[in-house]
Design brief:
Elements: E1 2-10, E2 13-19, H1 24-29, H2 35-43, H3 47-64, E3 70-72, E4 78-80, E5 86-92, E6 95-101, E7 106-112, H4 121-124, H5 127-131, H6 138-155, E8 167-169, E9 177-185, E10 190-200, E11 203-209
Antiparallel strand pairs: 1-2, 2-6, 3-4, 5-6, 7-11, 8-9, 9-10, 10-11
C-alpha cells in the first residue's frame, strides 16, 4: 500500500501516514543509507522492527522528496540532521506516521486497537478521566486518551512526566475525527494543548503542534 496520507496541516506542519505492505528488500532498496544506518537496521534481530525502521525513512523521503537522516537526542527524541525539522514518529502493527515542523514543537501517536487496553486503563488515566469514558465506545475512547497522552509526552521532550499525575485530558465525546484538549503540568511547565484525532482501519491516531 505504501503512502496513505501526505498532508500539509499548516504552512510549516506536515503529516504523513504509511501502511507497511512492502518486503524488506523493497523498502531497503528505495533508500540511500549511510554506513551507520545500514549497521543499525541490519543489527535488529526482529524482522518487524527492521520493516518499521525502514518504513519511517521511506515515509520521510516521500514527505521531503529526498533522503534524510534521523538522529536522536539524550531522551531518544528524534530530530532531523542539522535540526532541519522537529519531528515526531509513531508506528503500530502495519502503520507508520510522522509529523514534522521547522519551527513548532510536534507530538504524535498511533495505536492499533485491541482489548488489552481495558486491563491497564488505571495505569495511565486519572479516576475522573475513567469516569468520563463513553461506555458504548469504550475501546476507542480509551485509545484516544492513551494516544493523546503519548503525543503530549513526546511534544514535551519526554522529561519529568507521569501519565497519571502530570497529564490530564479534558472530557470529550469521541467522533471519527475531532479535537480534544490536554494539559501538561510538571516541574517545567503548566501548559494546555489542542490535540487532533481520527481513526482509520482500527487505528487511533492523535497529533498536536504548538
Amino acid at each position: 500500500m505504501g503512502l496513505i496520507l501526505k498532508e500539509r496541516i499548516k504552512k510549516d506542519v506536515k503529516f504523513g501516514l504509511w501502511e507497511i505492505t512492502e518486503d524488506y528488500d523493497t523498502l531497503r532498496n528505495d533508500l540511500l543509507l549511510d554506513d551507520d544506518d545500514i549497521a543499525t537496521v541490519e543489527n535488529f534481530k526482529n524482522h518487524k522492527r527492521k520493516l518499521e525502521w525502514l518504513s519511517v525513512r521511506t515515509l520521510l523521503k516521500r514527505m521531503l522528496n529526498k533522503d534524510s537522516k534521523i538522529v536522536y537526542g539524550p531522551e531518544r527524541k528524534p530530530y532531523l540532521h542539522n535540526n532541519a525539522y522537529n519531528i515526531s514518529i509513531s508506528h503500530s502493527k502495519n502503520f507508520t506516521a510522522i509529523i514534522m515542523s521547522k519551527k513548532r514543537r510536534v507530538g504524535l501517536d498511533l495505536e492499533f486497537m485491541t482489548n488489552k487496553i481495558l486491563r491497564i486503563a488505571d495505569k495511565f488515566l486519572r479516576p475522573e478521566e475513567i469516569e468520563n469514558i463513553e461506555k458504548d465506545q469504550e475501546l476507542y475512547h480509551l485509545y484516544l486518551h492513551w494516544c493523546a497522552k503519548e503525543a503530549l509526552y513526546k511534544i514535551c521532550d519526554k522529561v519529568d512526566i507521569n501519565f497519571v499525575t502530570n497529564l490530564n485530558i479534558d472530557p470529550f465525546k469521541p467522533k471519527l475525527n475531532g479535537l480534544m484538549s490536554g494539559t501538561v503540568n510538571n516541574s517545567y511547565m503548566n501548559e494546555k494543548f489542542v490535540l487532533n484525532y481520527f481513526t482509520l482501519m482500527n487505528y487511533s491516531i492523535v497529533w498536536c503542534y504548538k
